[in-house]
């Protein structure tokens, strides 16, 4: 007589990354990371204020940019501020442009027809042309510049290229992170699955990029997003800046996004919501320590 096999047990749900970092399963944990530190001075001032007087927890430094030396000077004076390296292959500005740290003759596949870094609108062309060996040269130059300045980053992430934009660029970045004892920000499902398979903590939920939010009603939207924050580890990439004359001249398409981000991050309402909701704000140092423990 044939007997039916008992139903298979469902696979155990993997632990949320918050649990891997030592938080209870129902804890609501968020990294509020400030991207574009070093792009220009009005961003630098807003980043520091948003961490010291606001709710932000860490930032990401764009090494090739005009304000990078000022940003690194600020970080040397404030070693308690955790920061990552915002690996940069894209230039947002149409004047006062920045280029690669590597000599242009060594990284021609990273440059457009005018011999400049590609603008964000031409990311597909960049990703179609970029040679991995040239990407590595430039990424190493940016990492080395930070380390040579006597600074200790926590992680790597990318400017305008989620998870590096290509699988091989992501894998290269993970290798560089492991070489230097850093973590890596992973946002999209393929990269998150790859790292989870290795037992490494990554965000549990879809990331938030502040440039995706409408300017109208943004503060109310931020407040609702905090109140609705799910259990596990989340990450917000926020872009604060001061609405100075410099910002309006250099960044005509982005300064309003940055100013409204800054206004919310430093508002009493934002801090009150975190306290009322019992939300834990962490930074990439905890991710870095978990990576180091797993990979050693």
From TrEMBL:
Alphabetic keyword roster: Carbohydrate metabolism, Hydrolase, Magnesium, Metal-binding
Swiss-Prot/TrEMBL cofactor(s): Mg(2+)
Name listed for the protein in its UniProt record: Polysaccharide deacetylase family protein
